[in-house]
Amino acid sequence: MPAAALSHWRDFRNIVLFTGAGLSAECGVPTYRGAGGIWREYNYQDYACQRAFDRDPVQVLDFHELRRTKVLSCAPHAGHAHIRAMQAEHPGIHVITQNIDGLLQRAGVVVVAELHGSLWRLRCPVHGIRDDLAVGAYAHRHCPDCPPDRAPWLRPDITWFEDAVNEAVFEHAAMLVDDAELFVGIGTSGAVWPAAGFAERARQRGARMVEINPENNEASALYGQHIRLPASTALPEAFPIGG
């Protein structure tokens, strides 16, 4: 068992599960930073910023289609399934994610805030956000709701480098973090701001702080309990279901 399983986790009124790239990495989804990260192979200035999209939307959309195809080749693991089971037992569990891959949703998890957007949405400057769940190529690269002769390119609904964050999403997440009695960081290094500030925010407001991450990282000092196991193992052991 990991250090001190939280057998009474249901006694916490509001629980925030704050997930990062490490949760998906177990499924085979490459991380963006660190050893083997995507940005060691690709230059974000060519694929993941508004300037790149304005300069060459085809190249940027091709890149994101590759990301979608890779994600679809990966299946949610036991940790994703356990989060779904926890939500079925406790109405006060709020999942906030930095991940854009949609694996939590594929596992049946209700996600209340996708801080950095989603690979599975596009947005039109006129008509706003639309889902695109097509396998392989995007269903549309130009907005089908705009006049065909001037339909704009659809941009992935992702917070790229140099973008401002979605303030409404972050404000909603902050409200949930402020109310959390238990805050669980899962597979996040605490390196990406402003999302990284949520752990400190929860700690300052007196939440019980639990970290699930195989490795120590720059945010670890904010947590009172550390479970140095992968999420697929740690979640079922630390948060038992039933009984």
Strand content: 15-25%
State the total count of DSSP E strands: 9
- Fraction of helical residues: 25-40%
The number of helical runs is 9
Overall pLDDT level:
93
Order of helices and strands: EHHHHHEHEEEEHEHEEH
* Name of the level-1 CATH class of the largest domain: Alpha Beta
Ranges where pLDDT stays below 50 over 5 or more residues in a row are: none
Overview of this structure, please?
31% of the residues lie in helices and 18% in strands. The protein is α/β, with parallel strands linked by helices and 243 residues long. It folds into two domains: 1-28 and 76-116 and 164-243, 3-Layer(aba) Sandwich (Rossmann fold); 30-73 and 120-158, SIR2/SIRT2 'Small Domain' (2-Layer Sandwich), CATH 3.30.1600.10. The strands form two sheets. It has a six-stranded parallel sheet, sandwiched between helices.
Keywords for this structure?
243 residues; alpha/beta; Rossmann fold; SIR2/SIRT2 'Small Domain'; 2 domains; 6-stranded parallel sheet
